[in-house]
UniProtKB/TrEMBL annotation, chain B:
Reactions performed catalytically: glutathione(out) + ATP + H2O = glutathione(in) + ADP + phosphate + H(+)
Species per Swiss-Prot/TrEMBL record: Mesorhizobium mediterraneum
Protein name: Glutathione import ATP-binding protein GsiA
GO MF terms held by the record: ATP binding; ATP hydrolysis activity
PANTHER family per the UniProt record, alphabetical: GLUTATHIONE IMPORT ATP-BINDING PROTEIN GSIA, TRANSPORT ATP-BINDING PROTEIN
Subunit-structure text: The complex is composed of two ATP-binding proteins (GsiA), two transmembrane proteins (GsiC and GsiD) and a solute-binding protein (GsiB).
Length: 339, 268
């Protein structure tokens, strides 16, 4: 098992109403290259904070302790070309997840980004990760030089959010949003990038890829929009795909289709998958390992079969017991039901 | 044989979109008995929420009849409609969107008591405290703003508001879908307790067959605005007959808590 990234003693604190709230407390976790790892938990468990921290997408106001080390091989083109991007999930300012040396070119790119220091919208605020970038770089410089490079959001990490209506640009054609990722990160010409976008739309199985290239997000259904968001997330061939509640807003049937699609794409491209979900049953269908978070702590980590069949932590058991499956004990006392 | 509490027959709602007419709800019929839970299941776009909005008279149907408590509900207007609305209440998926987030819990519960003339001004604070306790919340919560309380507490407040007018039927549109699993179970238990004690009927709209199998007596499965199948909830979920019923059952995530998953183990 080769590690893709290693998280040690990660603590994330937000300031809220003048007081400090720890969203993550001393989390240590290794993510193996090529594995499908689910991070599950309820609201406030820290699961999304963990995903955002890995992607370098924490808000600038977050205080971060601990370290994340990446073990990525350096591609020849890295840092060569990183024009500003419109897609929130591929913004160059996210390059600041930059946790291992060498740190320089990405921060320069981010420094040039005029929006980076002006969080005019909550989204922009989330996109700039100044504080932890600096903090982590200091840490990283202390560590021995490794054959690694800084992971860049969009190129090395694809991120799929819960709400594709919020992550896709409503006034940009879908094809351009996907092509832009390939253009920005792979150095392809625009016509090559559009050709790649069309292939990606076929791969995520949009019914009419040619028409979809020219479609705007509002012309697509929720499931189709999420397929587009996935196509954009994998357009630059990232090593790591993070899906943060990516199927939670979809109905059960579309959810099952999207999960099957993610599984297939991850296998075909040899990606590592981080699947963040509140649904332990859904996580168990997709992931090989499950990490259970509660109140900012990692309470249990294990192989899916072990977590489901013999959970060690009482909270994992409680989550399993709370799941209402088709075969679950009905809460309704049918015999005494008034009819 | 008692007459049904709600009798819906031939309900139809069409929309024009891009020059074409689409039937969002197409000739749907069902009954709900007093104290019964009927679930409406189906994928997005199957017409579930349109039916809820039709029943609340938020939109008007193109065809069909709705009889509620023995009267023609669709012909009611003005004061008569307002009076019957006290008997037919609604809980939405997102209480933060349904209520003014800055309103206090007390204000949210005061409205129906005042509007429907249920309690005098002097009496209302006591009634509000009683409603909060009825849904398992502390009466101390009355002074808090809606945005300050948790999602589970908010949905309890929404239920307290719905039962404030002593309804015989509550339409619950994806009312537990956004809640954490542990909170979801508690809210479902609360709904069942209220139903047992007050004989309230529920029209429970959900795409989640797991939740439906836990609390519904009967289910109607919709597909593209039409009834695909209906029957006893357990029977339909155990052996769905329609294509959409089979697809919904197949798509529901399943936990196999006893077997060994070799696929998961082989990487370790």
């Amino acid at each position: 098992m080769t590690a893709l990234l290693s998280i040690r003693d990660l603590t994330v604190t937000y300031r809220r109403d003048g007081s400090e709230v720890a969203a993550l407390k001393h989390v240590s976790l290794d993510v193996a290259a090529g594995e499908r790892l689910a991070i599950i938990g309820e609201s406030g468990s820290g699961k999304s904070t963990l995903a955002l921290a890995i992607a370098g997408l924490l808000p600038a106001s977050a205080r971060i302790g601990g370290r994340i080390d990446w073990f990525l091989r350096s591609p020849s083109s890295w840092g060569a070309k990183a024009p500003p991007s419109v897609l929130p999930d591929i913004s160059p300012s996210r390059g600041e997840i930059a946790l291992s040396s060498p740190p320089s070119p990405i921060s320069k790119v981010a420094g040039r980004d005029p929006t980076a220091k002006l969080p005019i919208s909550p989204l922009e605020g989330e996109m700039s990760g100044r504080t932890e970038g600096g903090l982590m770089e200091r840490d990283a410089q202390k560590s021995a030089a490794k054959p690694t490079h800084i992971p860049l959001g969009g190129r090395d990490i694809g991120f799929v959010f819960q709400d594709p209506s919020a992550s896709l640009d409503p006034v940009m054609a879908v094809g351009e949003q996907i092509a832009e990722v390939a253009h920005a990160h792979l150095g392809l010409t625009w016509s090559q990038s559009y050709a790649r976008a069309k292939t990606l739309l076929e791969r995520v199985r949009l019914p009419d890829p040619d028409a979809a290239l020219r479609a705007f997000p509002h012309q697509l259904s929720g499931g189709q929009k999420q397929r587009v968001a996935i196509a954009a997330a994998i357009a630059a061939g990232p090593k790591l795909l993070i899906a943060d509640e990516a199927t939670s807003a979809l109905d059960t049937i579309v959810q099952a289709e999207i999960v099957a699609l993610i599984r297939q794409l991850v296998a075909e491209d040899g990606m590592t998958l981080l699947f963040v979900s509140h649904d332990i049953a859904l996580a168990a269908e997709l992931a090989e390992r499950i990490a259970v978070c509660r109140h900012g702590e990692l309470v249990e980590l294990g192989a899916t079969a072990q977590i489901i069949a013999s959970p060690r932590h009482a909270y994992t058991r409680a989550l399993l017991d709370a799941h209402l499956g088709l075969d679950a004990e009905p809460l309704l006392e049918r015999a005494g039901a008034s009819r | 044989m008692s007459s049904p509490l709600l009798a819906v027959s031939g309900l139809t709602k069409r929309y024009r979109r891009g020059g074409k007419t689409i039937a969002a709800v197409d000739d749907v019929s069902f009954d709900i008995e007093p104290g019964e839970t009927l679930a409406l299941a189906g994928p997005s776009g199957s017409g579930k929420s349109t039916i809820a909005r039709l029943l609340l008279r938020l939109i008007e149907p193109d065809a069909g009849r709705v009889e509620f408590e023995g009267g023609d509900f669709l012909s009611l207007n003005g004061a008569a409609l307002r009076a019957q609305r006290a008997r037919l209440q609604m809980v939405f998926q997102d209480p933060l969107a349904a209520f003014n987030p800055r309103a206090s819990v007390a204000r949210v519960l005061d409205d129906p008591l005042r509007i429907h003339g249920i309690a005098s001004r002097k009496e209302r604070p006591r009634r509000i405290a009683a409603l909060l306790e009825r849904v398992g919340l502390s009466a101390d919560l009355a002074g808090r703003a809606i945005h300050e309380i948790s999602g589970g507490q908010r949905q309890r407040v929404a239920i307290a508001r719905a039962i404030a007018t002593k309804p015989s039927l509550i339409v619950l549109d994806e009312a537990v879908s956004a809640l954490d699993v542990s909170v979801r179970r508690q809210i479902l238990q609360l709904l069942l307790d209220l139903q047992r004690e007050e004989r309230i009927a529920y029209l429970f709209i959900s795409h989640d067959l797991g939740v439906i199998s836990a609390i519904a007596h009967r289910v109607v499965i919709l597909d593209a605005g039409r009834t695909a199948e209906s029957g006893d909830a357990r029977a339909v979920i155990d052996a769905p007959q329609s294509a959409i019923g089979k697809a919904l059952v197949a798509a529901a995530p399943k936990l196999n808590r006893t077997s060994k998953d070799s696929d998961a183990a082989d990487r370790q």
